[in-house]
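In this notebook, the sequence line spells out the residues, with the fold written below as integer tokens. This is how one looks.
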Amino acid sequence: MPRADAPFMQTYIALCHLTAQAKRNRAESLKAREKTWSEFQKRGLKITAYDTLGPYDVVMIIETPSEELALKFLAVAGASGNIETTTLRAFSGEEMERIRAL
């Protein structure tokens, strides 16, 4: 359970395909990813990524204090030309209970 003084964090799941560009320039794309992630983590974004087997190359769990910050991060990441994403808004059990109570 989150601390009472902790900011509310929205969760997004990004299903990612690496582009041909990213696969060709793996070392450069990893450096660009680290730079982008570092910039957004300073702004409160928490990113956890998993390399995966199956139809997607990477799955990212993104926790953010605002929808706008998540969208900006995904736009910047996509503009790099290294990934294409399908993004899902994920809701915790606690969030769903609040929604049901409306």
Summary: DSSP finds four helices and four strands in the chain. The first helix runs from residue 20 to 24. The chain has one domain: 10-100. Strands lie at 10-18, 46-51, 58-64, 83-90.
